[in-house]
Design goal:
By secondary structure, this protein is α/β, with parallel strands linked by helices. The protein contains 11 helices and 9 strands. It starts with a strand and ends with a helix.
Length: 230
């Protein structure tokens, strides 16, 4: 039987949310209709955004260990519910197990809401934004991206992400929605919640008439489609 591996712990709450959404979104009538899943949740992985900004690869050995553990458990497809960890995607895919790319799943979600050729706002960690994880990939597919300013990153987004990681989720809503307002004012026709902590605070699917694309949900839906095909 095929098994899905979840390389998690980055952070633990985002991994738990992914498992919940995977279960909720699966069209199941009974326990046996759900996807067999192994969660590898290791919160000891060094901070991904910090490593990207510092130009090191301290998280990579831990990420590889997690992939190998999931392989040993018999997983034949893997998802990583952490956007920033995809900086090392090309290295991890070399280990031989298919990994569903989170940005590909978001692109599918944007197509589903008919946001093709429209400006897309992107929220994420400083590492994700400075890496250009979404900007580079989505631009190749025909989207233009609007990103927060450096000041918004420093005083609103990163502090809000840190609040979520410290279980102060309600406090994170106001700074995040303030930046979403700013991106909409600049012309964004859809907003990507491109850090898997952010959907824990922003539960809306629409705001001010604009779609909010949850990268946890898009990744869960991509995993479900993958297992439907198999």
């Amino acid at each position: 039987m095929k098994k899905l591996g979840v390389l998690g712990g980055m952070g633990p709450a985002a991994s738990a949310e992914f498992m919940l959404r995977l279960t909720s979104l699966t069209p199941a009538q009974r326990d046996q209709d759900h996807i067999p899943t192994i969660l590898w949740s290791d919160p000891r992985v060094p901070d991904r955004s910090t490593s990207i900004l510092n130009g090191d690869s301290l998280p990579l050995p831990c990420l590889k260990d997690g992939i190998k553990g999931l392989q040993t458990a018999g997983c034949d497809h893997i998802v990583i519910p952490c956007n920033t960890a995809h900086f090392w995607y090309d290295e991890l895919i070399k280990l031989g197990t298919p990994i569903i790319h989170i940005v590909d799943s978001v692109a599918d979600a944007l197509r589903e809401i008919n946001a093709i050729d429209k400006p897309i706002g992107v929220l994420g960690t400083r590492g994700t934004i400075e890496l250009g994880l979404y900007q580079k990939h989505l631009r190749k597919l025909g989207w233009s991206c609007i990103i927060p300013s450096s000041r918004e990153m420093d005083i609103m987004i990163q502090p809000a992400i840190n609040m979520i990681k410290s279980n102060r989720i309600d406090e994170a809503y106001k700074p995040l929605i303030t930046v979403i307002d700013s991106l909409i004012t600049q012309g964004a026709k859809a907003i990507v919640l491109g850090c898997t902590e952010i959907p824990l605070a922003i539960r809306d699917t629409h705001y001010q008439g604009v779609f909010l694309v949850n990268s946890i949900d898009s990744l869960a839906k991509a995993a479900i489609k993958q297992f439907d095909r198999n």
